[in-house]
Fold each of these.
Amino acid sequence: MSSNPNRVFNFSAGPAMLPESVLKTAAAEMLDWHGSGMSVMEMSHRGKEFISIYEQTVADLRELLAVPANYKITFLQGGGLGENAIVPMNMLRGKSSIDMVVTGEWSKKSAEEAKKFATVNLAASSENTGFTSIPDRASWRLNQDAAYVHLCMNETIGGVEFQSVPDVGAVPLVGDVSSTILSRPLDISKFGLVFGGAQKNIGPAGLTIVIVRDDLIGQATQYTPDVFNYAVQSKSDSMYNTPPTYAIYIAGLVFQWLKARGGVAAMEAQNIAKANLLYGALDASEFYVTKVAKDCRSRMNVPFFLRDEALNAAFLKGADERHLLQLKGHRVVGGMRASIYNAMPIEGVQALVGYLQDFEKANG
Ligand SMILES: *Cc1c(COP(=O)(O)O)cnc(C)c1O
């Protein structure tokens, strides 16, 4: 639990909570990182101090996710939405079409952006269910000559999550893992590429992580900016231009925090416990409603509704008074959403469940 009485439980979808111990370390090291006499923010990205931070951070991520040796890890900028364009620029490899699996607002956005670069085949979509489900794998219409298959492993807005990596055959799979990375084990070898912005489950906004298989690098289209060219950036260890140094440093502290807590498998156990607690409370009540099919419920983002939506404002006000913040749902979905990433302690979910029950008693 927090030692600071002012700390809140922040259920924001992103930027999101960070582990308090990470923030304390960063605060303690702010003026003088490890006797260097400077803040990490002030360091040259080519100096030995920052290079040591960078190398440790990449190595820790590789260890945490068991990233195979034939995959490059790059730390870029541009966010998840930037990758919606950067991925096709790098990954078409002379081909002209992309297969898209659309299970929510983020993969829908990815499909729209990709249309600027290639023919987009809608291989599957759950839009007709209001993005509350994942289309059965057997129904997907995949093309053997597609450059890649794109999907979003966890739809942050709709709260729909793949519970395992689907098999798509020989065509490389591209996964947007922005809001699920490091919340559970992920078999990177099943992907050609995964990408994610850091601000959901890792660290500060501004850092984008791209993990890509060696053999897919090096065929970017002619007009790909060098800073967004995976070949250029992986050859120069993400230092072709100045990387987001402070964000990388904080991500590194988060990776050390994860390792000290037992790594991704231990986080998964905690995340299952937190998700079960919250979904269990919602399922036990007639007062609250959830819409996502149970077999694809997200462990990270839990959208829910008050049956009587006239009570929404009162619900949010009462939550704020208990220091349970940012529970308002995304405007596209409405209702409420609780994002419970790695850094949300179980105490936060317990406090939310307590509030759900008290609010129902007072208003049900
Ligand atoms: C937040 C998010 C994005 C967009 O990230 P930005 O860093 O804001 O560009 C893309 N995909 C998913 C799944 C997200 O959760």
Amino acid sequence: VDGILTASSSEDLRSLGSRATARLGLARHVVADGRQVLETARRLRPRVVIIDVAMPNTDGYSLCREIKADPALATCRVMLVLSGLVTRDEVERFAECRCDDVVVMPAIGEEFHLHLADLLGVARRRTRRIAVQLAARLGRHPETRPGLVENLSVHGARVRLESPLTDVEALRVSLDLPPPAGPLQLDAGVVWVRDDGKLLGLEFRGLTPTTHEQLANLAVWEIVEDDGVQRVIMEGDFDEYTDFAPLGGRLRGRVEFDAEGVRYINSAGTHRWVHFLRELHAVTECSFSRCSVAFTSQAAMVPEVLGTGRVSSVVAPYHCERCGRDEERLLQTQALVRDRQAFQIPSFGCPGCGGSLVFDELPNSYLSFLPRM
Ligand SMILES: [Zn+2]
């Protein structure tokens, strides 16, 4: 079964889980009795088991440990769900039971969905559907290939093609932008090729200031209206070419910035961003979710990067000493315990070797913006 097993007797968690799994197109099973969890997991082999630690008559940590100790369930990921304030003792138990993720309730649907998508290793949201044409010369013959852009920055793009293109080093890219911009024509080099020539990594070459600016604006944001909240998905680099002004005019009410796609910020970009936040007069409430390592590091140095906004989650770098694996994990700020002097960051089980994934930054520096909030 390609599905999710939820072990909970709480109605809130069940309904959150059901919306999230429906969006991911997965089958879902619920058990309300902790004694049935292991048996059901062994029978169904779900991809994710969600364990409500508050479930009566059950020790969620022991359940997690048992799942993790069962070789037949080796690929099964475990999410622990807690309520209210996390204690120091609980953070220690996360590492000890080798869970893969922790979510603290109350969590909003979007947050829950993102955690689940992360565990499943699926794209968190649909990729932006910018159509592209690649034109190349193969020997003496000009060839064109239609495709879709999967990832875009001012430096380059990842492009998925309908039919393969191989043995090409340089080509002409035509990005199909909506009017009035029209198609954007660029020269690019092929940096890597995967999937037998159907997935290409391109590096743009010879950009003019105009094409650079067009790309920067294209790469930077997308607004998704979501239940009374404007969710702004930020993408790409913040630098001297980034112009936030057209975005500012469109934002009002409650706004959530999803900053996972912010890859690089320089000082000019920081300056522009801070100025942009100050001018958001029609915005009543502002928050930041999934702050990327680049965004979080910048916010730690320049607190104005967050304006008056609250941070709900950050992407945190993790490292396993034993096998050298590096991973990024999404951490809810409400899942972090602050103990007078220091943050206590949960560790997780390493999916590679069974060791421990440990937070790979200095907690007090990386999260220095939190105590103010
Ligand atoms: Zn490892």
